[in-house]
Amino acid sequence: MKFNDMAFFHECTMQICGSLKIDESIKNCLFFLKKYIPINGIRFCIYEPELCGIRIIAQASDISIKTKRFFIPLSKEAIRYLEANQSKVIKIDHAFESPVAHEVRMALNLGDVSSIGLNLQVQDVGLGYVVIYSRNPMNLSSEHSRLLTLLHDPLAIAMSNTLQYREVVRLKNLLKDDNQYLNRELHHISGDEIIGEHFGLRNVMEQVRQVTPLNSQVLLLGETGVGKEVIANAIHYSSPRRKGPLIKVNCGAIPDSLLDSELFGHEKGAFTGALERKRGRFERAHTGTIFLDEIGEMPPAAQVRLLRVLETREIERVGGEGPIDVDVRVIAATNRDLPSLIQSKEFREDLWFRLNVFPITIPPLRQRKADIPALVNYFIERKVREMKLKHRPVPAPGEMERLQHYEWPGNVRELENTVERELIRQQTRNPNEPLRFHDFDNLSTGVPDPDPGPAMPLPAEEDLLNLDEMTRMHISRVMEKTNGKIQGNDGAAAILGLHPSTLRHRMRKLGISFGRMV
What percent of the chain has pLDDT over 90? Predict the structure, then answer.
């Protein structure tokens, strides 16, 4: 290398490495090279064979470029030319001499240009290309090619660092995006427990166990508030996909204009306000499960796109240029009568057939009232923790029976709200006073409690029992009802609102024998 070449190499390398920002480095490099080579611009670019095009990583120019396109699709002819010409340096006097140069200058709205392309490699691994160009044809010589070749190593290192930095940023944003989204979903999952799986939900849980090991679509049917989301959690977290994400979408809560972007994502600049690429819910659910709640509220246009995803297992981002494969299990849920919606043309029949692979109907609370005591105790335990209460109150005697006589049009959700409301009211009372649920039914129906009828006559004074005798009779009655079972959601302790150890201690004190009855 000649002395002047050495000085040229050293000074240009300092310009290339003078900034951590590639756009600033390439701009400094351009103004330095203009002293030695009559060029108007320089760009770093890579070839993406999977997308059949060239992506511009960074560029600088002293002329106005009317477009800011960073991805340029190539024709089959241009791709063949690019793959056939892998020389280290290529000099082109007129853009039309190369289909690649011609299509790039057309995409960037440049006139006829002359250019020199340098193939950047490190240890025989291709990284991409650096291209310098002049707006005047035949303005670049072999000497200019030689000077550019001298800069191969620092340019290759700059390209490698830029690509690795972009990948780190992409993975960081991906991780941040997933963490933010999954953290929002985490509190819905924590604490979700199947209450009544051995009683009112026994048939439902049997169906869950049947479908869990498979990848089949599941359709959850039932009134609002019956716990469809809890069943969806049970299916996912018991399935082989449990290590993947569970992404939840309320189809009725997303405006029609945003539904495509939310479900399938969008590319940067796809529409006004799309400042960066965004992955949709289906991409987030890759290798996991997506739960489409209120599927009956999905607009017709979105139903068509969902049908295509179910058929091809491919999505396409808004503004995207190609399909993206997704490996997702779909669980849908609705409280609406889908066959009626099909007859009224509000829901597609072919989508119904696709979703209705394995329907599971979750019964309303009024059809499984035996689960109410266990649910009440579960909600008391959970709400005491959430509200950070110092005392755990118990329902007053007879309150469970009152709750079981109500029809619960709001199902489990209404019962949960009722428990929380009474716990809030309890804060202004004596902490040892039990929960009574005086007005739980009035809040939903506006109808006062039914007339209980004439009061039962008080027993004669000689028939009055002391408190221990009354307690012994009540506990014995509950033990008979539970066949001697103390622990568990259906045990005597849950019905009485006591800890199992407390109940056993009280039974010993009252002389009541216990043990599982045959």
Answer: 27
User: pTM (2 decimals)?
Assistant: 0.55
Give me the phi and psi of 136, to 5 degrees please: -105, 125
Cβ atoms 147, 37 nearer than 8 A? yes
pLDDT tens profile 232-261? 999 998 999 988 899 999 998 888 888 888
DSSP class of residue 429 equals: S
Q: How far apart are CA 518 and CA 483, in angstroms?
A: 8
Return the percentage of the chain with pLDDT > 70, whole number: 89
pLDDT digit string, tens, across residues 478-499: 887 887 888 877 788 888 878 7
Strand order in the sheet with 41-48: 71-73, 53-61, 41-48, 125-134, 114-122, 89-92
Contacts 24+ apart (CB under 8 A), 506-513: 506/471, 506/475, 507/475, 510/468, 510/471, 510/472, 510/475, 511/472, 512/472, 512/475, 512/476, 512/479
The domains of the chain, with CATH numbers, are 3-164 (3.30.450.40), 191-363 (3.40.50.300), 365-447 (1.10.8.60), 464-518 (1.10.10.60)
